[in-house]
Amino acid sequence: MFERLSESIGSAMRSLTGRGRISESNVREAMAEVRTALLEADVNLEVVDRFCEDCVQDALGREVTKSLEPGQEMVGVVHDRLVSLMGPVDRHIALVEPGPTVVMLCGLQGSGKTTTCGKLAAWFKKRGQSVMVAAADLQRPAAVEQLQTVIEGVAREATGPGRVAFHGEPDKCAEYGKAVGVAVGVCQRALAQARAGKFDVLVLDTAGRLHVNDELMRELESIDRALEPHSILLVVDAMTGQDAVQSARAFHARMNVDGIVLSKFDSDSRGGAALSVKTVTGAPIKFVGTGERFDALEEFHPERVAGRILGMGDVVSLVERAKSEVSEAEAEEAAEKMAKGQFTLQDFLKQMRAIRRMGPMKQILGMLPGMGGMLKDADIDEKQIDRMEAIILSMTPKERDRVGIIDRSRQKRIAAGSGAKLDDVSRLVKQFEMMQRMMQQMSGMGALGKMKAMKELSRAMPAGGMPGMGGMPGFPMRGSTMTESPKARFKQRKKR
Ligand code: GDP
Ligand code: MG
């Protein structure tokens, strides 16, 4: 998401950078480029025109033309306007006392309601709230079953102290469409159960249709009247661009939603929905869905998204993810070991796995400043990382602790055990030894020397290591890699 947009806006901004002075017409030219980029990203036309004019006015007001660094200044202007385009956001779901707080999800078919129910259940569970999820989509028994499977998965696998329960009445599907108020009945019984079970939250998974229609709206309104939900969230599929925004407008007009969950934010869509939906509907995006699993839900932060679009990276989100995967203590321990030059292959394996748990490499690297554009057609070879992991796994604990003892015969055994080539094993060993030596040298230096060495190290490794990972200086596969072709080497470098 946003890769192309980010690239085009970046080039428009660069056209202003490095010039001593710029004129109003330079600003307008750059904004014309931005305008094209936004339209290509499927942002609503009216939104685009207003946005660009606002940026020009701000630029003139801030006297960007007289600034010593007009490019920088203009990036600031665009950044602030992007933030106000998507915000402000109240990411809060206010809980009522006594519970249960009723949260109703609505949206078109396939937008991601059922998936989002699971994500919200996990989100509440983590925060110590007990949550019941009710299947109010009675169009097909399979829809009830799907939700049940999702919720049982959350109850089993999601971390946190809250209880998670499911309420479903699949036999009612036969009555759906023949009698009115079938879904309302299910919701009311779920509410009674949630009350009796002292649940803090009741989430309703409602029916969708392929298009907004009156029958669906009447059904949703009847649930709204009967249950009076404290919060109505509209799930919108980011991949459907302007269609998503138009259907969101129709939903909001009838349902007066409190906020939007923009699903499939992890997709390669152009990003138009994220930028238009607030202005067009008046409802802010509260959450984004970043994957199919129940843990792939993030609070929406306009300033981070704006930063990402402008190529400033989204380091904050990355650090947040890293934090949820590695405990502070673990990260500190790793950093300390590195500082003392005691970082082993076993530690390396641990860190690598923590990083991988954060998500696909490509997605993670895309969040690093300046990497988004580079990654456009980079083919991130997760298999190579698999191979590296396999090699380390085939080592004995002693070998992982002291890479120095891995001689030729041990290398042969490891290669056979992991299915890797002998060359790959010896290269990994050599490179890890080199990295260790560097870290050891650094541990002997004073603060100043250390800083210098760190700079050297980060210069050699473009991504500068993973933030929040205890200063881990990226993967140690530098210079030569497991495969020898220059192209593969280039890919490998991008990987960091
Ligand atoms: P519903 O018809 O609105 O209940 O939609 P579902 O929850 O069944 O989701 C439809 C499809 O979208 C499923 O295949 C989900 O796995 C997928 N999906 C939902 N949210 C996301 C998301 O944030 N990212 C990705 N990649 N897929 C999602
Ligand atoms: Mg569903």
Q: Mind explaining what this structure looks like?
A:
- Helices cover 56% and strands 8% of the residues.
- The protein has 496 residues and is an alpha/beta fold.
- The chain has three domains: 3-86, SRP54, nucleotide-binding domain (Four Helix Bundle (Hemerythrin (Met), subunit A)); 101-312, 3-Layer(aba) Sandwich (Rossmann fold); 323-495, Signal recognition particle, SRP54 subunit, M-domain (434 Repressor (Amino-terminal Domain)), CATH 1.10.260.
- Helix 9 (241-255) links the parallel strand 5 (231-237) and strand 6 (259-263).
- Helix 4 (70-86) packs across helix 11 and helix 19 (408-418) packs across helix 20 (422-443).
- The longest helix is centred in the C-terminal third of the chain and has 22 residues, at 422-443.
- It starts with a helix and ends with a helix.
- Residues 373-378 and 454-496 have low confidence and may be disordered.
- Bound molecules: guanosine-5'-diphosphate and magnesium ion.
- Magnesium ion binds at residues 113-114, 137, 143.
Write the layout of secondary structure elements.
Elements: H1 3-14, H2 24-40, H3 45-61, H4 70-86, E1 101-106, H5 113-126, E2 131-136, H6 141-157, E3 164-167, H7 182-196, E4 201-206, H8 214-227, E5 231-237, H9 241-255, E6 259-263, H10 272-281, E7 285-289, E8 297-299, H11 302-309, H12 315-325, H13 328-339, H14 345-357, H15 361-366, H16 371-374, H17 382-393, H18 397-401, H19 408-418, H20 422-443, H21 447-460, H22 486-495
Parallel strand pairs: 1-4, 1-5, 2-3, 2-4, 5-6, 6-7
Antiparallel strand pairs: 7-8
The structure holds guanosine-5'-diphosphate (GDP) and magnesium ion.
Guanosine-5'-diphosphate is lined by residues 107, 109-115, 208, 235, 263-264, 266-267, 289-292, 296.
